[in-house]
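Pasting as-is:
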Amino acid sequence: MPSRTQLTLRTEVGTAWGTAEYGLGDTHAGAHWGYTTTSVADLVEFIAAEQHTDPTSPILDWMAGAGAVADDGTEQNWGTARLPGVQGTKWGWSDRGTPAAVASVSFGPGFVVAAITYGTPEPQTADVTEAITPLMLPRSRIH
């Protein structure tokens, strides 16, 4: 697995390349690790493109093999990761400014889902579950 320095360099260079390659108009590279900004639409567009064009992508592999706890001690078991059928997730959070912000993007067979929430992981999990679960019901159960 690449070192954090290698990943940082790849992320910074990759963000600039990815915005052009994938047409990610709301994604902007930051000057340092953790300062890139993006949108839910760009997250979904990028991961869906990876699923379609490179299903064995290292990015999807890293998402599928994410640990339960990040290097900084943050638990990674919230947001879109809690939805049924998820095979991989990437989480993000910011502790700069008020309110705090959290994000998650997940993929599974035939779907990608992402959320950005001003708040903590718990409200994001509740929001995602409330918004997505009704969409996952079989058609026969929808009235």
